[in-house]
């Protein structure tokens, strides 16, 4: 191990050290290019990623994780992707950037100062200042009293709760979910696909003392549990393929699926049986079962899942009781949403 | 919230994007680009570019099989992060749940947002009958009790500024629609420490609200219970409901670090007083 104090962020790292450490796999036309990339300071991982091959990128990530810890890199890239102009020529920059600010603030509940936001978004301070001033006027952001930090404001909450009102959730799905929670004595979740992640937008608590903590509104990767995989499995084929190519498969536990190949196999099984059982893939002592919900167009609109401690689900009798209950409840909601015929699955209850 | 603004730092496209999101929030279904452009007085190209960008951000989605747009899950993701950051659930929720079971009515937690009161959490009444108010719904400050409590305990300069500028729509015969009457009401609320409102939002509903303070003695929210007007006009049950509410509000304020709740001391002695003179005047 090198005998040097570890810098706290990539921005503080001495530039020369990064250049010296990085040893990419040979790819002659790329290597001279790579040194020039590190002249960006602080290094913008998204720009770097575009220039490297997959092997080189993995090397880079390894070296960076030795210095700064691996978890931050994925989040940094996610944030920078939001303001990446390469996607659409219609996109309005300031709106993309405002969205990026809101997402970053959403992840940091204790608020951020303008300087920190500028660093994370790779923008200059004046730009960030103007964006914050505008967002403050819209009430999407508020200043924390007595500090120079900003956090989310109540305006975005008003708009966000209007989203729930526009779904059929409360009238159609909730009664069924409440009934299911009583029957299986576990927490029940309703989740939808958002980009390449799954977001839980409603939850009925387990009637028992111990239940899963609230993840309402949090976006999780599709491989971290059963409902993400169900949402992926029943997408139309083109969307499914696109997601499989591009989505992240972070390793959360020893059981997590991290390769597209294994995921494909799992998806085929889910499409056959109509449910997904996940044991310890999101957290090592938790398990969940999920089933798809279809609307009147026969498209998957959400996933219904129950979750609890792993023993109840790994026991064959327990699983034999819980799985059909979830499938039944999901089929009932699909029917209420007007789905003309639920696809016939194996082991259908 | 159009492009006209006194804030010289404001970025127009972000302001317009905000207007679009608010417009979609008011519509329960979807809207086409043309309809949005018309309502907000924008030209179609501008509206289209904004909506395309918002769609890319996940804040807006297409309604499947139509050319309409509605709010996307992105706003919900960000909005729910707001709740997580206000630290509501750990301190206040258990007390609110207890209160709901005690008084058998719906309990609301609302905060001041601009010139409106927004309900950001609600515990449903354990009975079949409860208020239909929605989380995230905003009401004017003159209707019902919680808006007036939020207004009454603001620092004086903010209070005066709001009184000068807020709209005072009329909902029923009893709604207060003049700033002068509202000012008198506020003085009374500050003295009593709570607000009882009978039939001002809807003729057969009533509610009572109390303020929640933080460690700086600043009002951070209003706690209220609401139900049918009979329970609140009968003096015995009214004093029971108000007393329980004040207790709960005090408990939560203590958890938020407020050592001594200022107005509550006098409140206990005035619980169950007959309706204020204004209500009678408004009814004439």
Description of the structure:
The complex is a heterodimer of chains A (349) and B (284). Chain A has 349 residues and is of the alpha+beta class. Chain A has three domains: 10-83, no CATH class; 92-157, Arc Repressor Mutant, subunit A; 167-336, GAF domain (Beta-Lactamase), CATH 3.30.450. Chain A is 50% helix and 15% strand. In chain A, helix 6 (93-107) packs across helix 8 (125-137), helix 10 (169-184) runs antiparallel to helix 15 and helix 11 (226-233) crosses helix 13. In chain B, strand 7 and strand 8 (205-213) form a beta hairpin. Chain B folds into two domains: 3-76, Winged helix-like DNA-binding domain superfamily/Winged helix DNA-binding domain (Arc Repressor Mutant, subunit A); 86-283, Beta-Lactamase. Chain B is an alpha+beta fold and 284 residues long. Classes of the chains: A alpha+beta (349), B alpha+beta (284). Chains A and B meet through helix 6, helix 8 and helix 9 of A and helix 1, helix 3 and helix 4 of B.
List keywords for this structure.
heterodimer; A: alpha+beta; Beta-Lactamase; 3 domains; 6-stranded antiparallel β-sheet; 3-stranded antiparallel β-sheet; 9 strands; 50% helix; globular; disordered N terminus; B: alpha+beta; 2 domains; 12 helices; disordered C terminus
The number of distinct helices of chain B, counting runs of at least 4 residues, comes to 12
Overall pLDDT score of chain B: 82
Physical arrangement of strands within the biggest beta sheet of chain A: 6-5-4-9-8-7
Q: What is the average per-residue confidence, as pLDDT of chain A, rounded to a whole number?
A: 80
Q: What is the CATH domain class of the largest domain in chain A?
A: Alpha Beta
Helix percent of chain A reads: 40-55%
Order the strands across the largest sheet of chain B as they lie in space.
Answer: 6-5-4-9-8-7
CATH superfamily of the largest domain in chain B: GAF domain
Strand content of chain B: 15-25%
Low-confidence stretches of chain A: 1-8
β-strand amount of chain A: 5-15%
Termini distance of chain A? 58 Å
Q: Would you list the SSEs of chain A in sequence order as H and E?
A: HHHHHHEHHEEHHEEEHHHEEEHH
Distance between the termini of chain B: 38 Å
**Which structural class matches the secondary elements of chain B?**
alpha+beta
Number of discrete helical segments of chain A: 15
State the CATH topology of the largest domain in chain A: Beta-Lactamase
């Amino acid at each position: 191990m090198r005998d040097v104090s570890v810098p706290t962020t990539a921005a503080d790292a001495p530039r020369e050290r990064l250049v010296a450490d990085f040893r990419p796999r040979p790819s002659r036309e790329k290597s001279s290019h790579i040194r020039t990339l590190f002249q960006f300071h602080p290094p913008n991982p998204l720009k770097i990623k575009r220039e490297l091959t997959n092997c080189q990128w993995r090397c880079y990530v390894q070296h960076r994780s030795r210095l700064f810890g691996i978890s931050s890199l994925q989040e940094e890239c996610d944030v920078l992707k939001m303001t990446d102009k390469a996607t659409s020529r219609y996109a309005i920059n300031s709106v993309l950037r405002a969205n990026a600010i809101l997402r970053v603030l959403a992840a940091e509940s204790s608020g951020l100062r303008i300087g920190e936001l500028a660093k994370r978004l790779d923008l200059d301070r004046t730009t960030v200042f103007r964006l914050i001033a505008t967002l403050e006027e819209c009430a999407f952001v508020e200043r924390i009293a007595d500090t120079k930090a900003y956090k989310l404001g109540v305006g975005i909450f008003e708009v966000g709760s209007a989203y729930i009102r526009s779904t059929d959730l409360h009238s159609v799905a909730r009664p069924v979910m409440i009934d299911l929670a009583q029957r299986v004595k576990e927490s029940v979740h309703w989740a939808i696909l958002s980009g390449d992640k799954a977001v839980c937008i409603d939850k009925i608590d387990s009637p028992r003392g111990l239940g899963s903590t609230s993840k309402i509104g949090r976006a999780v990767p599709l491989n971290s549990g059963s409902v993400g995989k169900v949402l992926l499995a029943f997408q139309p084929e083109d969307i499914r393929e696109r997601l499989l190519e591009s989505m992240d498969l972070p390793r959360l536990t020893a059981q997590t699926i991290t390769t597209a190949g294994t995921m494909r196999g799992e998806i085929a099984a889910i499409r056959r049986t109509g449910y997904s059982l996940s044991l310890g893939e999101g957290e090592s002592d938790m398990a969940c079962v999920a089933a798809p919900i279809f609307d009147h167009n026969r498209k998957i609109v959400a996933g219904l899942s129950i979750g609890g401690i792993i023993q109840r689900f790994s026991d064959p009798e327990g699983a034999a009781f819980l799985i059909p209950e979830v499938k039944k409840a999901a089929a009932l909601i699909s029917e209420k949403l007007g789905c003309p015929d639920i696809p016939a699955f194996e082991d259908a209850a | 919230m159009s492009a006209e603004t006194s804030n010289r730092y404001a970025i127009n496209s972000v302001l317009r994007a905000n207007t679009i999101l608010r417009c979609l929030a008011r519509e329960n279904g979807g809207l086409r680009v043309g309809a949005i452009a018309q309502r907000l007085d924008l030209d179609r190209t501008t509206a289209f570019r904004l909506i395309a960008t918002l769609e890319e951000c996940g804040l807006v989605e297409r309604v499947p099989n139509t050319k309409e747009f509605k709010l996307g899950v992105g706003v919900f993701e960000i909005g729910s992060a707001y709740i997580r950051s206000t630290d509501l659930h750990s301190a206040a929720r258990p007390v609110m749940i207890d209160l709901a079971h005690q008084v058998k009515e719906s309990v609301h937690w609302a905060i001041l947002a601009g010139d409106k009161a927004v309900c950001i959490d609600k515990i449903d009444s354990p009975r079949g009958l409860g208020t239909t108010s929605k989380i995230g719904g905003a009401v004017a400050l003159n209707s019902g009790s919680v808006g007036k409590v939020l207004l009454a305990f603001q620092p004086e300069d903010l209070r005066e500024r709001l009184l000068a500028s807020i709209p005072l729509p009329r909902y029923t015969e009893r709604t207060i629609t003049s700033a002068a009457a509202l000012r008198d009401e506020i003085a009374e609320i500050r003295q009593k420490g709570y607000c009882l409102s009978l039939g001002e939002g809807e003729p057969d509903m009533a509610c009572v609200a109390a303020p929640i303070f933080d460690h700086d003695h600043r009002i951070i929210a209003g706690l209220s219970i609401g139900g049918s007007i009979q329970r609140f006009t009968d003096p015995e049950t009214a004093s029971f409901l108000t007393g329980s509410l004040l207790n709960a509000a005090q408990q939560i304020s203590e958890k938020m670090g407020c050592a001594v709740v200022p107005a509550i001391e006098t409140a206990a002695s005035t619980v169950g007083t007959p309706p204020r003179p204004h209500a009678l005047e408004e009814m004439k």
